[in-house]
Structure formats: C-alpha cells, structure tokens
Amino acid sequence: MAEKKVIAVTGASRGIGSAIVAELAARGHVVGCLSRKGVGPEDREVPGDLIHLAADLTDDAQIAAALGDLARRAGRLDGLVNNAGLHLEGFGHEMATQDFDLVQRTNVTGTFVVCREAHPHLVASGGGLIINIGSFYERLGAKRNAAYNASKAAIGALTRTLAVEWAPQSIRVLDVAPGFIATDLNQEYMQQEAFRRFLSKRVPTGGAGAPEDVARLVAMLFETDLPFLTGETIFMDGGQSVNQ
Fold this sequence. Notes:
7 helices; alpha/beta; seven-stranded parallel β-sheet; single chain; Rossmann fold
C-alpha cells in the first residue's frame, strides 16, 4: 500500500472526476471532493475517506475556503487534480464573446485559481503533485471547438510555467490530456453508429477510453516516486492524435 495522501479533486461528482475519486479512495487516500453542489460522486458508489466540499470554479473565495477547509480537516494537503471544466461548442464565426470567455474563465482561470490557492498548503506539506486534466484537443484543429481547444492549450502552458516556478518548493505539475473518453454524459453520442465507425478508424487502439483508464494513470502518478518528472503533458488518447 502506498503512503496515504490527502488529494483534492475538482469536478468530483461525475465522469472522469468521480472515477479518479474512486481510484484514489480505493488505494487508501483521503480525497477532497470539490464540486459546485458540494457532493461526492453521483454516478457510482465510492467507499472510503471522502470529504465533500462546495467549490465553483468561477468563485475565487469559495475555492480558497474549500481547500482551506480540506487542509484543516485532513491535517494537510499533498496533491490536487484539476478535473472540472466546461465544454461549449460552436463555430468560431458564430460563438458569442461571453460564451468564449466563460469557457476560458472556467477551464483556464478556474484551474489557475485552484492551483494558486493550493500552493501554500502544498508548501506547508513540504511539496506535492498537481495534475491538471487537459485534452488531446489542445493539438487538434477540431471544428466547433475554438473555445475548448484554446482553453486546453492554455492548460498545457500553465502547467509548464507553474512547474518551473514551483519546482524549488518540491511541487510538481503535470498535464494529463485524454482523448475520447466514454462517460455517462456523452454515452448517447458515443453510441451513434457513425461516431463508432469514426473512432474505430481513427483510434489505433480501436475506440474510446474509459474514465477508469485516466483514473489509474492519475493514481499511478501520485504513487510513483518520480521527482524528475514535471511540466509535461501526457497524452492518453489511444494514439489518435499521432495517427496519420
């Protein structure tokens, strides 16, 4: 059993976030479940040591309060997974400025604020690991996704910058960038025959991944002693983005 850690996970209520919570909890870690509702996973039963906290990524004060409460109740903070995000589609020439801004405010600024507010707690713990959940869309020109693509590319840049700034304090920062992951939120779309054919053709491994795939990678990164690994984007897309 790996050393027990206290890890905050944003967007903990569904999809990839709830899978990450479940995997970390199953390995014996204390998991701070941050969500707008202040609840833990809603799409699965998760036993373990969970602390539920309300945190809206557009509310700086709420984020600071949630992380402070977690550190107080658990005694420290060892790690953070920035999973929460927003995906709004629309052609670039049609998307309203307010919609584009909302995606950036949620995905980029929100992630930055959570990192910033976690920083003093990680320093107090002698260091730690931050994993930002990006997307392989950061290196694609996917139509109708200008806002989302830009936000995920920014996550990579933010990861690299904070990794360099915070390395002297033994804080590592990584970007895990999944490809198509089948969740309850996109189940109907993923099951469309045309999209299934697209995935079978474009993804060398044969189709979409599962939230548990991402969760196992995240847990492995927390439990493996890799002090020299920081600032990197780790793509997990079944080889799709390199499939020419």
